[in-house]
Write a structure and sequence with these properties.
The structure holds 2 protein chains of 2 kinds. By secondary structure, chain A is mainly α. Chain A contains 4 helices and no strands. Classes of the chains: A mainly alpha, B mainly alpha.
């Protein structure tokens, strides 16, 4: 006789007790947290990807002008537009503040999700 | 019906519906185990949730075998972490026979159900009975989960089951 067979009756009692505590809200709560973590990961990936894409795009006009000889007037106007945007941002620090708040919020939410 | 290893393989590929099915199948066992280890439904649900969140993160490391044993091992480790945070001054000694467990007022009542009978066991016996009898792990799986020798597990289970039967018989007589 296996050891487990000597207490099969108790196992049945414990299993019956467990079934009484089965609850769909528990499954929903666990899966809600898992899905929230997945959403947060996606959001951070998209934000990081977007940031990288913006940095890459900002380098593109000069790269194209140097390598394929893109029309100088076109690249100049793009570079001027970039300078205009950065000048606007530095003239009005509110945008920088908003950006900082968004980044800090994302980091805080990510840290809390991990915790 | 799909088997646990199939669902776990799907979950490892990022399928959260497969993992939800695993949670649904094993929640009763894990919540019951956590409740019996802690004797507190609040802590138990926190431990059970943490167990499934850890399982989701580590599902890729599940290498076949009994899924119940794998998830119960995680649950036992989560319980140890919670206990270390709550009682850092007490070193865990698996050879100790009698370690008092926090008891609620309900324990003083005349009637004694299965859970309360279990709560009266010494801690090492209670852990072994919870893993082997209540959660249906084999003695070997329980030894792997706790890191205790197989002989220790067997002896704690045997003595724990005997004590449990004695408590339950006393309740029936009363």
């Amino acid at each position: 006789m296996r050891d487990e067979d000597t207490y099969a009756d108790l196992t049945v009692l414990f299993a019956a007790e467990d079934r009484e505590h089965e609850a769909k809200p528990f499954v929903d709560r666990v899966m809600g947290r898992i899905r929230a973590q997945a959403r947060m990961r996606k959001l951070l990936l998209v934000a990081a990807g977007l940031g990288g894409a913006i940095v890459a795009a900002s380098q593109l006009p000069k790269l194209l002008a140097d390598s394929v000889g893109l029309d100088a007037s076109l690249t100049t106007s793009i570079i001027q537009a970039q300078e205009g945007v950065s000048a606007l941002a530095s003239a009005n620090p509110l945008w920088l503040g908003i950006g900082a708040v968004v980044v800090l919020s994302l980091m805080a939410v990510a840290a809390m999700e991990r915790a | 019906m799909r088997t646990d290893p199939d669902l776990a393989a799907d979950a490892a590929r990022g399928n959260d519906s497969a993992f939800a099915e695993l949670v649904r199948r094993h929640q009763a066992r894990v919540r019951g185990m956590a409740r019996r280890l802690t004797d507190s439904s609040g802590d138990a649900d926190d431990i059970a949730q943490a167990t499934f969140l850890t399982a989701w993160q580590k599902i890729g490391t599940y290498a076949g075998g009994t899924f119940a044993a794998w998830i119960c091992t995680i649950c036992y480790r989560e319980f140890l972490q919670v206990r270390r945070r709550q009682r850092p001054e007490i070193e865990f000694d698996e050879t100790a026979e009698i370690i008092p467990f926090d008891r609620t007022l309900a324990d003083t009542g005349d009637k004694m159900d299965l859970s309360r009978a279990l709560a009266k066991l010494p801690e090492a016996q209670r852990i072994c009975v919870t893993l082997c009898v209540a959660a249906s792990l084999s003695h070997r799986e329980a030894a792997e989960a706790t890191g205790w020798p197989l002989g220790t597990i067997k002896s704690h289970v045997t003595r724990g089951v005997a004590a449990l039967r004695k408590h339950l018989a006393a309740t029936e007589v009363a």
